[in-house]
Amino acid sequence: MKKIPVKETIGSVLCHDITQIIPGKIKDRAFKKGHIIKKEDIPLLLSLGKDHIYVWEKKEGVLHENEAAERLRKLTAGAGITFSEVKEGKINFIAEYDGLLKINKELLYKLNSIGEMILVTLHNNYPVRKGKKVAGTRVIPLVIEEEKIKRAEEIIGNEKIVQVIPYKQMKVGIVTTGNEIYYGRIKDAFGAVIRKKMEEYDCEVLGQTILPDDPDKIRNAIESWIEKGADMVVCTGGMSVDPDDVTPTAIEKTGGEIITYGSPILPGAMFLLAYKKDIPILGLPGCVMYAKRTVFDLILPRLLIKERLKASDIAKYGHGGFCMECEVCRFPDCTFGKGV
Predict the structure, then answer these.
(1) If you average pLDDT over residues 50-79, what whole number do you get?
(2) CATH number assigned to the domain covering 2-56
(3) What CA–CA distances, in Å, run from 326 to 140, 172, 196, 322, 331?
(4) Eight-state DSSP code of residue 146
(5) Which end of the chain is more exposed for a tag (fewer CB within 10 A), N or C?
(6) Where are the domains of the chain?
């Protein structure tokens, strides 16, 4: 700190709070620690009896908290992020548009291990809406050694820690199977649920094909939707292990790559994911019909950013993939699927 006459402090940074007291009217902080003094502040400072001020004296190799926070912002924020103004070494990261929040957890850990500066985020793969606060950075002391910021820059390089990837507005074909539905014994309940889920992401449902439990007919229907321009095919019904549940066999018959049949997610264990070239084919378990949130709600946003999932991506859902089935559903503001 350096003590200098108040009239010479323009552009300097306060090292402490300054309180204003007017008996019977005001007792409050007039200036915060870290405030950069402006010309128009001088009369008020003088009226508060401050002829001299303790200010931060800029030194080579030392950064003010706000300057360091700006460096961190530029270093860690990727696409789809806007920001609050910097204040006391803190900047909030805000979603610029609807999309899926992606966090580089490994780099985040390394950054927060340096010390005296932090970056705090929401969970990876969090579906966010425009305007949602997704992260915040903070420099802990008033001043920080520039060497620590440089170390962070070396660790992170050209990669980013926080970004929001926008959804693609996909065209979707639905294939529903089951003799009981095909022959009119019961009414299909899947179609309306799938359409509602797709509407949440502004996706277009091209149509729905209802078929008996015939693997060749199911395969042909899947391929037909792809030929008609579907970016994704969703299959419902016939996903259990009963002998007449043949949807997995039909999906395999398309020649697509089966990524997984089964997932460590409840509700949603009997989930199937396959790819026909770049087109995802989903086999949805019966729980999607009646449960508020299921495996479908965790996987769909990732598919809508064109992320090609691997078996290992699905396996990671074992940590956090257990839905608590709350009486009032708060998804995605809950623990479901937040372990990945």
Answers:
(1) 87
(2) 3.90.105.10
(3) 37, 30, 21, 12, 10
(4) H
(5) N
(6) 2-56, 62-165, 171-318
